[in-house]
Amino acid sequence: MDLTFTAILLGIVEGLTEFLPVSSTGHLILATELFGYDAAQWSTFNIVIQLGAILAVIVQFWRTFWAVGTGLLELNPISIRFVRNVLVAFLPSAVIGLALKDYIDQMLGQPSLVAWALIVGGIAILVIEKVSKQGPLTGVAELPLNKCIGVGGAQCLAMVPGVSRSGATIMGALAMGVERRTAAEFSFFLAVPTMMGATTLELWGAREKLMAGAGPVGWNEIAIGFVVSFIVALVVIKAFMAFVSRSGFAPFAWYRIVAGALALFLLSKV
Question: Would you tell me how many other CB atoms lie within 10 Å of the CB of residue 89?
Fold first, then answer.
């Protein structure tokens, strides 16, 4: 398959799934496996194009980021608490991610693990949606530190391919009584330092190969995937926030279960 077309296809997959609780990395791994791509050649691409989706968050919530930035300059306590909460939630995955990077990279090559994680994660979402009790609508800055630490711990589960980062953080927040929309917004904001850190680490590890132009997948394909994932993610974020406010997360849970079961069946035929 043409490299440009593949980059566009994977960019669409990334943009569609990054902020939905269905695991973007898991879908990219399954796509490379089921469509016959060389997963090793596209591994760096799959991580780096997540920055396109992260840029969509910054554009979508630019007023919030601008208010927080100007508030920090004025030592506004709300802005300080906002940044504190995001950084506290980010730290667990940063520390554990650095410590276990080699092991995580090994798991990225196991599509069957992704399929099982999709199924188990779908069941977990259904259970949490059923038993959790939502608290009042609050801003990210108003969340107590213990809940931010809990969300950060939940995010560490997403190091297993197929365990959605957004799904883990949102469900972790819901389990602790955070209101649904606040949980989703916190997950979006937390994605910015998390995915920027992951992408920086991946680029540093692959710097020599990328600079030398070794391998068929290079900067051109990464740029195409980046732009496509940005455009698609921008549309998805708006639709996702409106949808979960009305309907909750159960439809995504059932999608995960069906997609995981279908992936296991197709992988058995490969």
Answer: 30
